[in-house]
Amino acid sequence: MNSKQRVKTALKRQILPDRVPLQFDLSRTLVEKFAQKYAISAHFTTAYYEDVTYRISANDLRVAMGSDCVVVGSSLPRGYEHPIDRCGCIVNEFGMKMRQGPIYMEVVEHPLANVREPQQVEEFAFPDPLAEGRYDDAAKDIEKYQQSHFLVGDMELTMFDMMAQLVGLEKLLLDMAMGEAYVEVLIERTKQFALAVGKKLLAMGVDGILAGDDFGSQNGMLISPPMWRRYFKERYRQVYAILKAVNPDVMLMQHSDGAVAPILGDWIEVGMEVFNPVQPNVPGHTPEELKSKFGDRLSFWGAIDQQNLLPFGTPGEIEADVKAKIEVLGRGGGYMVAPAHIIQAETPLENVEAFINAVRKHGLYS
Hints:
Helix 6 crosses helix 7 and helix 9 packs parallel to helix 10. This protein has a seven-stranded parallel beta sheet with strand order 1-5-6-7-8-9-10. A three-stranded antiparallel beta sheet has the order 2-3-4, with no helix packed on it. It is α/β, with parallel strands linked by helices. The protein has one domain: TIM Barrel, CATH 3.20.20. Helix 10 links the parallel strand 7 and strand 8. The protein has 14 helices and ten strands.
């Protein structure tokens, strides 16, 4: 099997692939270090929301290191550069003022921080999701890898995450709880922006679409399951149906950090097919719980701890964890091994390689 066949076979759960497929994202520092080690040029594709950059960058390097997936997405318009103020902050296309934090860009001024009325949302200028040049890098990677690797189209910040960055999380949560009328309008506008990106990537030939909204924290959900059902369940049904109408064979892949087990059944009901990143060490996410409850209806992508294990564990501990996750989540197929987030800069190179080697060693089905 080549990588494309391996991922499709694993995630469709109909027959077993030759081995469990592998995917991973690397921080900028790790990309630069591995690029030097492998003598491969490191190319960064700046996403329309900057922190998605590391999902859609350095595909040549990650493929050389063993990834079965190539992840592509929407970038900045051709020739566009973010304005930078005197403090070094950028103002992105959405009007979010952002500064570089210890790891990620952080929104320090939300363009809809004072929103009250639906009309304010209706009048707010979203960027053009189909602006000239946004998909130049995606087109190159799709052409290069469309026959050999599984192509993931990134459609993250689908609704809730984009809303939180536009409004501010605290205000958004309060306004959702109060039933403020603008919330419904904002959900629709973010949904339509995301769908424009997703449909474009499907037309270009990706095999899966990764939607993304982080509804969970380390200890539980950021919003209650009833609130999720009120605002997002049917809208996700609509999103998935529209994507399937464009390409019935697309794999519907959903990213949500944190402890979101209470809504997985609902999410499956409306069409989710692959759950990412299967964050470990949070309530409801033990491999046995997830596989036994949902494994006949859902495939899993992730589950390897990048918070403590990868940066601070030994290669032996990493191998043991990968082996254990494969034995449970990979039972009968339905699993792609990956860290539960971008592998961070403090992770030793030998630990990243230990992770990759462990997948190759323990992921074989025959």
